[in-house]
From TrEMBL:
It comes from the Bacteria. It is found in: Cell membrane. InterPro entries: LeuE-type (IPR001123). It is a multi-pass membrane protein. Keywords: Cell membrane, Membrane, Transmembrane, Transmembrane helix. This is LysE family transporter. It holds the Pfam family LysE. The lineage of its organism: Bacteria, Pseudomonadati, Bacteroidota, Flavobacteriia, Flavobacteriales. Its main location: membrane. The chain crosses the membrane at residues 6-29, 41-65, 77-95, 107-128, 148-171, 183-200.
């Protein structure tokens, strides 16, 4: 059961990080509308592959810090800072006028998805903060095979979320502004609460 839990933890983390309409998922939506569902899935697969590496980098960094007692307090402080930054980021996004247009892309959609995902600067700090929080609270074991299961879950979860955007592209396009505003407020509140909990602990 603990193996499944770590896989599920990775999936939930990916959902939290990518749920709000943004550059990647709205490009998946636009690609679907312009070129069809299979093109949207191909783009999503490319974007999801990069998430494996982003989650792995964050976990390696978090694991290194946790194994060095002299910097463990720094690790916890860094996680708190990341949570408050994410809360502020999503709050600002919710206040902005949302543009439902994704980028129009031509060419090899798998590699375009990888490239766009790779330039997502928020991904590694997000996974670092979240995995640190999970570890400090005893939910995430920083040892094999649990780390690998979490990473697999993150990649699978991102593909699953992108696929939902692809399959509901028409509905999302019509309701994008309402969805984006409300989800961003929810995520802002969630990360603010996580930051407070982490600070109190």
């Amino acid at each position: 059961m603990v193996y499944v839990f770590h896989l599920f933890l990775g999936i939930i983390s990916a959902f939290l990080g990518l749920l709000a309409p943004g550059m990647l998922n709205m490009t998946a939506v636009r690609t679907t509308i312009e070129q069809g569902r299979s093109a949207g899935i191909l783009f999503s697969a490319g974007a999801s592959v990069v998430v494996f590496f982003q989650a792995a980098i964050a976990l390696v960094f978090a694991n290194y810090l946790s194994q060095n007692p002299d910097v463990f307090d720094t690790l916890k402080i860094a996680a708190i800072i990341v949570f408050f930054i994410l809360a502020l980021f999503f709050f600002i996004q919710a206040r902005k006028t949302f543009n439902a247009e994704g980028k129009s892309k031509k060419g090899n959609l798998f590699f375009i998805g990888m490239l766009m995902s790779a330039i997502n600067m928020l991904a590694i700090p997000f996974y670092f903060g979240l995995t640190t929080y999970f570890e400090v609270n005893g939910q995430l074991k920083m040892e094999q095979p649990f780390v690998t299961l979490f990473i697999i879950g993150s990649g699978f979860g991102s593909f699953l979320l992108f696929s939902l955007y692809v399959f509901f592209a028409g509905v999302i396009t019509k309701r994008a502004k309402f969805i984006a505003t409300n989800i961003n407020y929810i995520l802002s509140g969630l990360f603010f609460i996580l930051g407070i909990i982490a600070f109190l602990k």
